[in-house]
Specification:
heterotetramer, A mainly alpha, B mainly alpha, C mainly alpha, D mainly alpha, B: mainly alpha, 24 helices, 4% strand, D: mainly alpha, Four Helix Bundle (Hemerythrin (Met), subunit A), 2 domains
Amino acid sequence: MALYLLILLPLLGAVLALLGVAPRKVSLLASLATLGLGLVLLLGYNPRLADPLSAPSAAQFQYVADLPVVPSIGLGLKVGVDGLGLMMVVLAGLVSLCAVQVAPAEREEDGAYFACLLFITAGCVGAFVSLDLFFFYAFHELALIPTFLLIGIWGHGERVAAAWKITIYLALGSFILLIGLLWLYLSFPAEVRTFDLLKLYQFAERGALEGAPQKEIFLVLLAGFGVLISLFPFHTWAPQGYAAAPTPAAMLHAGVLKKFGLFGLLRVAYPLLPEGAREATGILVVLLIGNLLWVGLAAIAQRSLDSLLGYSSVMHMGYAFLGLASLSPIGQSGTALLLFAHGLSVAALFAIMGEVRDRTGTTRLDELGGLAQRMPFLSVCFGFAMFASIGLPGFANFVSELLVFFGAFGVDGVHVGKRMAGDGLWIIFSPLQVGVIAGLWGVVISAVYMLRAYRRIFWGVLPDALREQTDPPLAARWPYALLIVGLMAIGFWPRLLLDVIKPGLGVQPTPAAQAGR
Amino acid sequence: MLPWLVLLAPLVAAGVILLVTRGSRALSAWISVGAVAVSFVASVALFLGPDLRSSVDWLRFDVLEGISLAVPFGVTVDSLSKTMLLVVTGVGLLVHVYSLGYMHGDRGEARYFACLSLFMFSMLGIVLADNFVMMFIFWELVGASSYLLIGHWFERPSAAEASKKAFLMNRIGDFGFMFGILLIWGMFGTVVFADLPGGIERLIGGVDAMRLTDPVQAATLSKRLTSFLTLAVLGIFCGAVGKSAQMPLHTWLPDAMEGPTPVSALIHAATMVAAGVYMLVRVSFLLPFAPSAMTVIAWVGIITAFVAALMAVQQDDIKRVLAYSTLSQLGYMVSAVGLAASGAAMFHLFTHAFFKALLFLAAGSIIHGMHHEQDIWQMGGLKNKQVITFFTFLVGALALAGLPYLTSGFYSKDAILYAAAGKSIPIFVLGLITAFLTAFYMTRLFLAVFFGKPRSEKAKTAHESPLVMWLPLVILAVPSVIFGFPFITSAFQLDAGHHEAGAIPVPMLAALAFLLGVGNGLWIYARREHDPIRISLLARKFYFDEIYAGLVRVTQDLAARIAGFLDRYLIDGLLVRGASALTFGAGFVLRFFQVGSAQSYAMVFALGAVLLLWVALR
Amino acid sequence: MSAITLNDYLLVSGILFAVGLFGVLVRRNIIVIYMCLEIMLNAANLALVAFSRFHVAPDGMPDYHGQALVFFIITVAAAEVAVGLAIIVALYRTRQTTQIDEINKLQY
Amino acid sequence: MSPALFWFFSLMMIAFAILVVVKRNPVASALSLVVSFIGLAALFVSLDAYFIGTIQILVYAGAVMVLFLFIIMLLDLKAEEKRVVTAAPLIGGIVVGFTFLTLLIRVLAGNANGKLPMPALPGPVDDVKRVGELLFSQYNLPLQIIGTLLLVATVGVVVLSKRELK
């Protein structure tokens, strides 16, 4: 029942905000309550009950509750979470809390604005806790609509064009996703057809999908989720959309809502269609190299911070896909952790970008400079977030990327031994290993564009036009600090999250952790 | 507990300064100094104690048969890391004390000390790391703290650019490093140093066992094993090339002199840049299995040593001369690793850390006294105005140039030359020429700075530095002299190297090189007001910077432009907007069929219905 | 003349339907088009009743479900005629015509 | 009913339907339609559907026709003026009609069930009772809906006929 409460909290906040009851305070409270409840549930979650080697069941998904809606086709609002879902819920609460706080002051009394933000949160939380394919999809749609509204009504620059583009693009992606999910649903034999994920896992493990065209279904799901995650070449909505979006919307979308796609691949596509995933690896690797190198290079060419961050967030999805494609628990744990790490770091970057834009009125790199002299706090925060984003150790992103690299390299690590049997002097690497090499080079690329941006904006000579800039007031600083503390906590001690999310990905929790819990 | 104390004390200091005391400069500085003092004391205690290892599970995945990933957060204290700990914390402590004076009154003093503490933490992490991943983590962290320290005066565009360059060059090296780590893990399934020799033996044992049954297969297998290991070692060496500023990634180090001088002394001379060598020594057990990689390492090292010495000859900035000499000495060490003389490399690292720190700190004292003037041709006659600095600088310079039998630098360089003489005559000859050049450019530097008449207003009004600055100089002068003597090397369990040199009288030749260098320097530069030689190829550092700038323009920037252009106009333009334009266009064309006449619609509808019927009944 | 079969009824119904369809397609007076629509509806009714008669229920009587459907069709048609004619009147008031080719406001 | 009568009524119905189409004067068309419907009603009777035949006469020949005529008179429609007969609809109509008929004949030719004579009935026809039973039992809900539809149509007609249309 706690999970229903989790969905209802932000919804309730949204309704109150719509009614005009101190919108920001109500929103802060609702987000805080969501975050708090999420943390409590995370502490109460027992990863040891789960058996990573069998199909996920109620032992792995705890706090399970069911509310049948159309029993004849197996449709019901079934909820339950494992470590991964809880991590995402906490992420949603955390980013939502910070996003509400950084909303600009002139929106203070705008109930609809805050209601939109909370609707996004509610939709995300709903999607992350749903164990029913239909509601899993529907909650995501619930979160998408307010995003469009936020961009179209309260956006910056070419907001209407951007809103149209993102609407049509993402709606198309959702539509493809819907086709894929329905195809998946119909591929189960009629007598076991249900929307209940837990049952689907068990049927799939017993071989219910053996005759199905797994590869084709997987590719449709990949295309659908891929559009939502901005998989190359379906990514061009992201830079434009994020540049136009109001800061909190960009934070929530890039930080949380976009992760729905990856979450969906981890929760639906990979466990149910392992064979299809295996066959589709080659295609996925080609696309993700596009994410890593092509989009990375395009990011270098950007001349303003907002589109640079947009491209950067697209590029880092390449690592997430690399981890997924590895099909190894190590790599997929890396991806799972990257959902959290990237969510926080990109939210922090967008928040600071928004603050800079609000204060200076521009995001063009050639018009900014030397801001560290006037805004020491923001420059330090941006430095931290930048280091996190380029994968510096000490931040969660590094751990995630490390696991992704090891996972993707290691699948064929045994191949290193096998390949020794071949002839010739040249060492030929598997596609995944080529992907890893591209990813390693992507780390260099990301450093190139982020350091360039940092140097242009915060270091160097301060232009006369920016002499009067100041840091945000003390009371408004905690969101940035909170996001960075989250990143560093996981970066220093990744087992805080890893021990909880591992069983969902087929790995036992680290032995020593069990004593502590 | 002791190793953890060494490691974490500076981190705590950095955190406290950042979060609590950043408002108070003096307090922050003393916290930082206190932390490094704690580390130093603990290091001494460790040095006297036994070897030990301690670790906790940081990441652990054991899932599939054959694949498991265990990354402990572990420290290892053995003779290698004990020595290095003493160097790092000892030099670090002196530099911290020195900074109290040098950075006094700087606006960003608190930030400076926080970064310095962060650096100490990261560097100690490299020293103590017991596995590749841990080493990589701290490897990156020293890169980041070096970035922050070079960019300490971030409002200067040159400093901002230099720090960016340093970080990116290191990142390129780390690309190879990580790749090497992944390969190692892929082959042996572990990243822990202590487990690797066993892993290699297992693989080789497997090949040997196969040799009895299937000799052909075993031969190819053995060849593959060698090529994989070579690739892995070269990858790891890439990391060392970046961090130790070997060719061709050396250009960041001279630029890094934009940072405060104590930073140059600690990070860009004594410790961080030596980390590459330290790491190579740490994994030197891998090298014998990859002979061709060793050749590459030896040659890269000696070429760097030689080319950097050439470039140092024509530099006018005091810190840049020292920076190039650092490059050159690092080249010696790397080359020694490649010559299978890692003991000699470590020995030279050890002595070099002290005398190079001494030289930099003395240079800092000169710059401080000269009101931040760094051009040596603006100095002159300082020997009377900065007496302590003069004598300590002399000690450092002699050690660097290798005054025979009296300075530490002579012994350690000798060890490397011995190794080269036994292995490869071309490398030995290049090493000798480098030694000659070293003596030559140090003489040039020394004469231009301390002798002759003051050549500028600043030089006339130069003054000696305060106690906190000259005291570290005096302290450092002692090890610069004595740390090469045999009784010290045995105390530190350093392998001074007694390699077979054949019939070559190495110490004689080295002494000759020293004398020739000093003599030539005296002959050319005594009582000169200007530099009598101008070789622009050397002064412009072989045009490396220009070539790289051009290279970046034609590769990365061009690729970025193309990707950005195509992304905007091909993917977003042609495909995405094309799809939307197609929809609009189709609507535009199709509306001409909307003639608005209900009967036409009915006609089309009826025709269509009949057609469908006809098709269905056909 | 041989006995009348179901095919005969269906043929007649089909011809009637074709005549109505032809009228809908070629006539321009909207009222006449309406009449032709009624002819088509009635052609369908004829086919339904013929089916109902020739497909006997188990008790040997005609299948009255078809006739019930015809009843509904007639009712709907009556309502449709009423509404349709009212629309025509309203249309005539604004456009002063009942010629369908002059009522083309829907054109782009 | 004898085949002769069947063919007589069929031909009458079709002939007058053709007249509906070809007559230029709407009044003539309307009156032809009445005759055609009477023929149809006769065919209904020939199929033992007395109830349907009756309401066919009542509703169509009575109510609907009166409505048509009334509207024609109300609008004071003249006969269609001579205008150039455009070829396209004519040809289209002929093509559609003939293709449809050809297809129909082909289908009917292959329909063996359709070649059986009319089955004899076991007893007297009580179609009103049976249709009524069906309507008020099985089809009760549709019947209610149809009633509502008629009501809505009535109201709609009243609204549409009001002069002040917005």
